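>> received
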Amino acid sequence: MNEIVKGSIDLIRQLNYGLVYASLEEHKELSRTDLSRLTGLSPASITKITRELLDGGLVVTCGESSVGRGRRQTLLRINERRFQFLSMRLGRGYVDMALFDFSGRSLSRQRHLFTEAERADLLGSLVHAIKVFLPKKALNLACIALCLPGQVERHTGMIKHFPFYDLRNWPLGPTLQEAFEVPVLVSGDVRTWIQAEREWGAAKNCADAVLVFVHNDIGVGMVVNGQLIESESALLGDLSHLQLEPYGQRCYCGGFGCACTLVTNQALEAQYRDLRERMQEYDLPESVTIRELCELALAGNSLCQDILHQAAGRLSKVLSNLICLLNPGKLLLGGEITRADRLLFPMLHQSLASQLPAEYLVRLQIESTHFYEDPTKPTSVQVHKALRDGSLLLELLRSCQES
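>> returned
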């Protein structure tokens, strides 16, 4: 019983610290009286919390209030340059890294491509790449946030499965935490992406939104009634192996006609090569990337437009099921294929209209995601969330007191 009470007290303390930080983040400059009024905490609690935040350098004074006739009050604001955090996306053969301060300002960034030799020891290579990237001086690293396309146990940082490298029970979070001695936040990439779109991007102020990410697989993030749909123990949000054509191409999973064999980047690029050969369009490049395919389609190339039209029809089979199930207000599409959004989206609307009752499409808006070109920005939402709920804040205060 004592452990339960102690745990509850610690949680309340954590949430109170997070509440103060979130208020300062939202309003920029506040007095202690303002903080007490906005958070509902007593003046004594606010005094204690702000004293610790000031001692740790997380908050600084920034002048005095000039409103009213009473005693002038000291204003506080977040010291956004006191700490930095590393935000990363680990992809298939590369890692994107960016160093941010607490204002969200990017200080430096880099993409590291792993060689074949480095992939043999991916964890050791990742640690080395991070050490090379981080500056040697004037660095107060608060935490590392990382996302990747795989099945993640968020609370432990263990990777249950990373498909591209076929890694299972991979100790990513614990290894990075031991190597850099800072908290490590690990999450699936689609989960962080839908959170970032909900917080800062295309799904802001939208209670019901679905994000579909088309790349080397098909990932889905869902917000229903303002709440992120997620699971700790199950792989949630992967539609790569939804069967679209029962007699289609054999998939690496053992099935036939999976979505990942038909509408992912590799599948569309392969369709281009095959169609070019069959139609003997030898004036076109022998092979193209998905971005080049989209640019050719936008330029009026009929072969590439046909590939996009077929992709839209197949993708709509995936989307129609989601729309029927969730009836979202916004459907967000991410991936290189959205570079041809002014062609693709009308095709999707037309195909969905033939599969769904009209009432499902009345409120539906289809848009491109905001953060695809900056894969490290969505990852940083984990850090801001951990500061606002107080968990990372208390870790930083503890480290300041120990140093």
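>> Residues 160 and 169 are 5 Å apart (CA to CA).
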